[in-house]
What does this fold into?
Amino acid sequence: MGRKNQKQKKKKHSSKLQEQLLQKGTLELTRSGIGYVVTGKEDGDVLVRPGDFNTALHGDNVRVKVVKINANSGRKEGRITEVISRRQTEFTGHIQLSTNYAFFIPDSDKPMPDFFIPLDHLHGAKNKDRVVVKMLRWQPGDKNPVGEVLEVMLPEDESNAAMKEILAQNGFPLSFPEDVLEEALRIPDVISKSEEKHRKDFRDVLTFTIDPLDAKDFDDAISIRSIKKGLYEIGVHIADVSHYVVPETALDEEAYQRATSVYLPDRVNPMLPERISNELCSLRPKEDKCTYSAVFEMTEKGEVKSYWLGRTLIHSDHRFTYEEVQDILEKGEGLYDGEIRLLNNIAQTLRKDRFKKGAIRFSSQEVRFQLDEKGKPIGIVVKESKEAHQLIEEFMLLANKTVAAHIAPIQVNKKPVPFAYRVHDTPDEQKLAPFMMFAKKYGHTFDISSPSSIASSFNQMLDDAKGKPEQHVLEQLGIRTMAKAVYTAENIGHYGLGFENYCHFTSPIRRYPDILVHRVLTSVLDKQPMVDKKMEEKCKHCSDRERAAMECERAGNKYKQVEYMKQFLGETFEGVISGTASFGFWVETIDHKCEGLVSIQQLNTYDDFRHIESEYALVGMRSGRTFRMGDKVKIKVVAANLDKRQLDYEWVLGEGNVEPAAIRKDGKKAKRTK
It folds into this structure.
């Protein structure tokens, strides 16, 4: 027995040692060429030198072997043994053509090899053409990857090329593989009689969709009918994507890898092929559709008496835009005006109740670019959240919350069933402390005795600051103190919404976590709860892809801002300081919501300015002139760099501004400009 135990101990020790030496993570490359495999482990990341990448590129998911541990610092060095999955397989760049061969030089600020392109894979590309290339293979030991040209981008199509570059660099494919498209095309577009029998039929109930004017994928609909006086049945019907996209198919694998649709100013890069997103699953008017529904019996005061979850059939009677519904609400007349006004009253009651129970009332402005036929921005519109938007938002929140609360108590083998919750943690104390000090300067105090009291303090501050000059800056800084919402199998609740249980159930056409939610819900309703042991891994992947999509959207908006502001070079605008740093401050123009940087070098021609972090301000050491976040200033547009997606502004000494002391050579008190 003793020997057997010793062998088992040795085996366990050897296995643990192997685990320590062979680790999984994401490769991050620096501009210098050094790589780090980010493992998420407490003992730190693994440094990898350029000769040890083994075909891995920036962002790839890899397996790394630790070959050296520094005795003094504990720093680990390793070599990559395997590329588990690639973050990016499509790239933008230029072709370099010779007589017998061609190379592709990628556009990247990270170290990357050139691609070898066989001449029969050029597909019409010529020397120096800007192209999109797909990596076909890169065998260990080969110096260069082999690629194929997917698209030649014309010089006049600069904006289109930039948007594709943004998507590709963030790991979003620009096209769907053939097997995925074929799989989507093979799905029947007729709902079979046997399928109809398995679904609750809502086709004779008044149902409609409310979406943006330019939407093509309608993934949610609302139905309403009266049960008796004061009691209504309200259905939230969601496109049943999980009926068409099933596990272990090329379609499902592609959707999982993308994990989200990406919304750029001039296009959508969809998670699913158009056949699924715009045809089979889109809840278009006057068509029978398969849906997944949360159906509520509710009073006109928003009290939920009961709910039902399950698969349904609907037939949308009408497709509304937000503008049309808002018009009905404001005028009190129009198609289905009685039902719309009733739904709105219930939604507004739900909204008030949500805030009363601790949801935080942050609001943020979004902009929409008006584009010409070539995608060039010709105007910018600030999107407002009106009651029509809130109507849909509140019923979607209700459905999401109800599904999560239904799943939360379910257990398998005395453990919670793995599920994709959408969670939001309480504020970070380190971020909250300087914000509280800043808010105190405006007379706002915080009670930090509990998470709920912090939320109440935020709401009180937002109420008190409404309409005052500091409102915008307090909102923006307040949002920055908040944790980021993520997907996880660990249900810690959603702090910002004030919900104990929350998930994403209502947008499966554009979000993969919603598909995961539908699958688990189906298994629970079928009394056979599924145990997906990889749920946490899938949640992390979806959170990572969501962050990448947000990066794309930010970069796309920034590009369009620069493209739009190019026409105003040399012109002066009113703006608001939107951020400060040691190297200058950012200003967002009031007219266009376009952000640019005023550099410290320009400011230092007037005075010696220092960044006071706790004040979110730059302060002149001689004049005392202060540029604080939220201040209104005048700026001149001096540069618009599309390649860097960067706007440069200069501060303009305007009427009412105090002239910094450095302008005066005689040392006398600065005058107020006229």
User: Anything to note?
Assistant: Residues 535-565 form the longest helix (31 residues). Residues 13-17, 658-674 have pLDDT under 50 and may be disordered. Residues 447 and 453 are 6 Å apart (CA to CA). The radius of gyration is 28 Å.
